[in-house]
């Protein structure tokens, strides 16, 4: 669907998910992430950029597992994560929009847990490319974990944490010849409804990830 059409549906409160493609597994166990290799940091920073053209080819599970671990996985024995959060609140949840359904990333179990048996990619942003890109990440703040932060400051704290996660994804994409773009022009109400979020949760940002449209995976 074209951007303008989606935007109009959003204004009307009628932007809806599509039926899932394939089986919506209740849980997807991810293989262990690859924690070695990749480009040196300075080279990854040199290559970091936003892209809005994606191949529909899905990311294999080993690559998806490493992507999610890089974004916000557990990297220490005490449960610390690859991205910082104030007071170690770990208030951000990553939701993964796949053709087969929407899943919440469980870093401790290294798995995906089904939250919606529908294809919500088209509502993760008004841009037309999100409909067919293989993967959209949605960063959601759970404010019940920020009880020690004044209410008026919670969104700012969570937004900083989400930004750190998004940069991890950018650097991983640059290091693995993937395309990605962070998006704030989104229908947060439609996404929240599709994911079944509570009033204590807020959609902050979405980020599309996939192979560049001009590069095949086997090249």
Q: How would you sum up this structure, described in words?
A:
The protein is an alpha+beta fold and 219 residues long. Helix content is 26%, strand content 22%. The chain contains five helices and nine strands, in the order H-E-E-H-H-E-E-E-E-E-H-E-H-E. The chain has helices at 3-11, 41-47, 61-72, 154-175, 188-195, and strands at 18-19, 27-29, 92-98, 101-106, 111-116, 118-119, 135-142, 179-183, 201-210. The strands form two sheets. The chain has a seven-stranded antiparallel sheet, with helices on both faces. A hairpin with a 4-residue loop joins strand 4 (101-106) and strand 5 (111-116). The two termini are 30 Å apart. The mean pLDDT is 92.
Strand order of the largest sheet: 2-5-4-3-7-9-8
Order of helices and strands: HEEHHEEEEEHEHE
Q: Total helix count?
A: 5
Q: What shape does the CA trace take?
A: globular
The N- to C-terminal Cα distance equals 30 Å
What does the average pLDDT come to?
A: 92
Strand content: 15-25%
């Amino acid at each position: 669907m074209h951007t303008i059409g989606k935007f109009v549906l959003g204004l009307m409160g009628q932007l809806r998910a599509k039926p899932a493609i394939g089986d919506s597994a209740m849980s997807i166990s991810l293989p262990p992430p690859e924690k070695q290799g990749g480009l040196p940091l300075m080279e990854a920073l040199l290559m970091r950029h936003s892209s809005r053209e994606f191949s529909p080819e899905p990311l294999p599970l080993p690559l998806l597992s490493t992507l999610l671990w890089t974004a916000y996985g557990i990297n220490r024995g005490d449960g610390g994560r690859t991205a910082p959060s104030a007071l170690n609140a770990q208030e951000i949840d990553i939701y993964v929009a796949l053709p087969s359904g929407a899943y919440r990333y469980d870093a401790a179990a290294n798995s995906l847990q089904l939250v919606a048996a529908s294809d919500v990619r088209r509502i993760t942003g008004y841009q037309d490319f999100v409909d067919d890109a293989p993967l959209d990440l949605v960063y959601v703040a759970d404010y019940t974990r920020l009880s020690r932060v004044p209410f008026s400051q919670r969104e700012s704290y969570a937004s900083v944490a989400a930004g750190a996660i998004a940069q991890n994804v950018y650097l991983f994409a640059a290091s693995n010849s993937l395309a990605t773009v962070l998006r704030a022009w989104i229908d947060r109400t439609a996404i929240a409804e599709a994911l079944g979020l509570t009033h204590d949760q807020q959609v902050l940002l979405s980020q599309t990830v996939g192979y560049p449209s001009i590069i095949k995976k086997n090249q």
